[in-house]
Design brief:
- The protein folds into 2 domains: about 170 residues, Quinone Oxidoreductase, Chain A, domain 1, CATH 3.90.180.10; about 130 residues, NAD(P)-binding Rossmann-like Domain (Rossmann fold).
- About 25% of the residues lie in helices and about 25% in strands.
- Strands 3, 5, 6, 9, 10, 17 and 18 form a 7-stranded mixed sheet that branches.
- Helix 8 links the parallel strand 15 and strand 16.
- Helix 4 packs across helix 5 and helix 4 crosses helix 9.
Length: about 325
């Protein structure tokens, strides 16, 4: 089979790889489409020690079962899935918070991912989709569920309902735009997105009814937002988020661009600011997101760009250079 392999920093190669083995209680999926995630780009930069050269990346997938060793999962049926492979028995799993599983592994990290024609995965990780759902739409389940989970956690912490809040999203990438679309679905009217890339700001103008600011042209206003979602997670954006949030407000930290940075803990404390972290999603979030995508809750998704799997190496280069106006590129093995 053909697979897109991370061979060294700043290099992906299309290679011939053996078909995946079929283990007990697993399936082999024929991949239809797979999104390029910011974490994949981070690995491509050589900045993720968990993802080593020689690995097939990719975890935002939809596919058709080609072979099955699990009862009830029939060849020919279409699925997306939870790329986090969890134990099902630790305290977090039994609480329904399997994203925090203490023994979790992950496709595209600890085992070959979906930048390939075929991928194996435990059947228990599969998530059902409408069988007629377009592949491009289904491939957005994972990033959309990240936004869904972040908003669900945020709603518990806000002093007032989200639709009353003045909200800021830092970063107009896929998570940022999906979070912005979901906020609008939840009734937010005063919404701003901060994004330095002019192509992405143009995309935002077409896809999201919001104010789009260039943070390089002028600093974000201070103490202006009840709710701030940082979809970048750099040292700079963490500082921006803390300065932009109102006293008593909530910051949701989603992005993981930088591993560490200093923040103004004195302001956090004296202004009673709530700082939340979020990691991925639960299986329940993924199922809810599939339903939301099927209902059109995230709009028409015209801002998503589809390319062929063999165009993957150039897609990574374009994303790195800021040459892709779309915040999400999906690689397809068939019709999108």
């Amino acid at each position: 089979m053909k697979a897109l392999v991370y061979t060294r920093p700043h290099e992906m190669q299309l290679q011939d790889r053996p078909l995946p083995d079929l283990a007990d209680q697993e399936v082999v999926l024929q991949i239809e489409a797979v999104g390029i995630c910011g974490s994949d780009l981070h690995a491509w930069h050589g900045k993720d020690p968990r993802r080593q050269p020689g690995l097939v990346l990719g975890h935002e997938f939809v596919g058709r079962i080609a072979r099955s060793a699990a009862p009830g999962f029939e060849p020919g049926t279409r699925w997306t899935g939870n790329p986090l492979i969890t134990c099902g028995s630790c305290d977090y799993c039994v609480q329904g918070r399997n994203n925090l599983c203490t023994r979790r592994t992950m496709v595209g990290m600890t085992r070959p991912g979906a930048y390939a024609e075929y991928m194996s995965i435990p059947a228990a990780s599969l998530v059902a989709i409408p069988q007629d759902m377009p592949a491009l739409t289904a491939a957005l389940t994972e990033p959309a569920a990240t936004a869904w989970h972040a908003l669900a956690l945020s709603l518990r912490a806000l002093a007032r309902p989200l639709h009353e809040c003045r909200a800021l999203v830092i970063g107009g990438g896929a998570i940022g735009i999906l979070a912005a679309l979901l906020m609008q679905r939840l009734g937010v009217r005063a919404l701003t997105v901060s994004e330095p890339n002019p192509g992405r700001r143009a995309t935002l103008a077409g896809a999201v009814r919001c104010e789009a600011l260039d943070p390089r042209a002028a600093p974000l206003p201070g103490e202006a937002y009840d709710y701030v979602l940082d979809a970048v997670g750099s040292a700079v954006t963490r500082t921006e988020a803390l300065r932009a949030v109102k006293p008593g407000g909530v910051i949701m930290h989603v992005g993981l661009q930088d591993w560490a940075s200093e923040i103004d803990m004195r302001r956090l404390t004296l202004a009673e600011i709530t700082l939340l972290g979020t990691y991925t999603y639960t299986t329940a979030d993924l199922r809810a997101t599939v339903a939301a995508l099927a209902e059109g809750a995230f709009g028409d998704l015209a801002w998503v760009e589809a390319r062929r799997l063999e165009q993957g190496p150039q897609a990574f280069v374009d994303l790195d250079r800021g040459a892709a106006a779309s915040p999400k590129i999906v690689l397809c093995n068939g019709p999108a």
